[in-house]
Amino acid sequence: MKTSMNTFMTPSSSQAGSKGRIAVAMSGGVDSSTVAALLCQEGWDVVGVTLKLYNAKGTAASMGGRCCGPRDIEDARITAAHLGIPHYVLDETRAFSEGVIDGFVEAHKHGLTPNPCVRCNERLKFGPLVDFARSIGAEALATGHYARVSPGHDGQRARVFRARDREKDQSYFLFGVDPSLFDQVRFPLGDKTKDEVRAIAAAAGLPNADKPDSQQICFIPDGDHRAFVETHGGAGPTGEVVDEKGKVLGQHGGTHGFTVGQRKGVPGVDGTRRFVLRIDASSGQVVVGPRSLLERTDLRVSEMRWWDGPLPRDAVRCDVQIRHHAPAQAASLWSESEDAAVVRFDVPASGVAAGQAAVIYRDDELLGGGFIAAN
Description:
Blueprint: E1 21-25, H1 30-41, E2 45-52, H2 70-83, E3 87-91, H3 93-109, H4 116-135, E4 141-142, E5 147-150, E6 159-162, E7 185-186, H5 194-203, H6 225-231, E8 239-243, E9 248-252, E10 275-280, E11 285-289, E12 295-306, E13 316-321, E14 329-337, E15 340-350, E16 357-362, E17 365-372
Parallel strand pairs: 1-2, 1-4, 2-3, 4-7, 8-11
Antiparallel strand pairs: 5-6, 8-9, 10-11, 12-15, 12-17, 13-14, 13-16, 14-15, 16-17
Helix pairs in contact: 1-2, 1-5, 3-4
């Protein structure tokens, strides 16, 4: 739907709710606020709901721009008031701490590179929000995710696809969500670009139309992962930095301060750029070397979710994405066990990091995913 500054109108009292009731997950950001505005315009009876995930009071997160900060909950409330819709807050701070933060800290302690956004979507966001939508008699839950969903029919499950705006696509974070929930989920922004969303927000006069996007992990707004992990008891052992041949290059203050593929802060020799190749949290050793040694053809994926039932025993052709902003690469995949698979890339992939998500696609369709296992 194309909307201009001159044509955007809120629904009249006779139009409001004409399509039925729908819940909108409102994070306080411009994307989810625009979803609420669009659905109001279309004549839905919109109910806003915000998850309180992290007690950020007294931290940088309370300044706004993060989906768990007090300022963001207030932004969601103000936007709901602007649109004339009810707004609720669900307190999931304990579940978020146990299901996301604790795992993030523990993973760093063991030399892994975790993805808390995947775990949050899997364990926190969709289950409670869909339950809330059902409890208020809503037909569906709408969110500001940049992804597309095709509802199931004739006994077939719903299917999830990449967003039109590939730069903003968030389907990568959704593979761990129970596929059955997507029959009750809508992604109104899936066919829109970020520029179009900003224009719609401005046309609707949304209070947060110009609010910047979040760039950091929501509970670490200053980006200092190392300090956060240390504060929460997840510091890895100190030890040596060695090159690929075992030559000691220096000492470090803890393995939790490194991720595979990292270059910043890695000691070089004779001006040679070096990257983190491996992290051994048991010995405290961090192995560094040239970029070429980051490349891997094979990897093992654990905690596999395969949306079409059991993992295929025979090799299937697919595209595998190993980081949010990395391109998906052509590969073959086959099962190793009920919940583990082996991936073999056609062309070696660079920067494979244990703990990160490996997400499986066929063209734009999300097929499943899991977590890269350590060597």
